[in-house]
């Protein structure tokens, strides 16, 4: 089966990786030639998908389309051409429209009674400000005082395009829900570990969240999916604060990082499941049958330095490749090549228990440190964590 993945950055890496794990061929489309996923897709076409005639000619041989980008004009053109050609596309326009606005998402959370961080100025400092239309950690700022706000030069700051809330401390968790027509399956809760810039540097599974709270998280997430009348997938992120889960944001699209972690830990492939939903109109989804310990971690290596950092480090090193048994890691997605002194990698380790996977990745880092004569290892955390 030929799957067209549109967008070759981090979402495209996730979609390409899991599509190939499902045994599918991947045709990758992007307007830039050296995007990360271009290094291990089956074929690549450079195209601006807003050029509809070219897009129509290229996608007509695809059996399934997975959007892996967040440009609204490009997504609109892609959905229109897919519908016209009768090709299934893994996209829910209505749910995505809500999830791409933090303001609209908060309305959904309030509607179902989910707990969220208190809005400013009802709360005290520190506070966090997020552009309503941004994704992940993009554009996020933390303020500790009124002076910090006054020093922040942003013309529309504080207006309707921003969400400003209390800064909530605690561990972060992610959960994906898939399904359609009111039938939804929550998959596996994962732990999210942030770097100093609040970008996720590491995902671990199974999560440290107690079973009772995991069940609560699942119920909240399924309730969100039902409220949206979701068709496809939604990713829900929450934080545990003072023993209570607070929902931070949702994304009604294939996310990056967590699907691969869940795949290694449970064997469940979210891309394959999306194919079942959109191509076969089947919401009869499998249950979890196994759980192993998995660590999924990003590193950047340069002369004398190894940095463990958020996924942003994976975007600027050109095409990536998938390598088995990478310095002791079970698998890696990496730009490494013999003789290259600047490279990045997403390391994946698996053992029966999470502690074993954590010990294995520590050994991998030590092997890399010795092999490349690393003098300094940096593993930053948020200052206000």
* Oligomerization category of the chains in this entry: single chain
- Rounded to an integer, what's the Rg over CA atoms? 21 Å
CATH topology category name of the largest domain: D-amino Acid Aminotransferase, Chain A, domain 1
Number of strands: 19
Keywords:
alpha+beta, Rossmann fold, D-amino Acid Aminotransferase, Chain A, domain 1, 4 domains, 12-stranded mixed beta sheet, 4-stranded parallel beta sheet, 29% helix
Please provide a written account of the structure:
This protein has 385 residues and is α+β, with helices and mostly antiparallel strands. It has four domains: 90 residues, 3-Layer(aba) Sandwich (Rossmann fold); 40 residues; 99 residues, D-amino Acid Aminotransferase, Chain A, domain 1 (2-Layer Sandwich); 87 residues, no CATH class. Helices cover 29% and strands 29% of the residues. The chain contains ten helices and 19 strands. Strands 8, 9, 10, 11, 12, 13, 14, 15, 16, 17, 18 and 19 form a twelve-stranded mixed sheet that branches. Strands 3-2-1-4 form a four-stranded parallel sheet, sandwiched between helices. A three-stranded antiparallel sheet has the order 6-5-7.
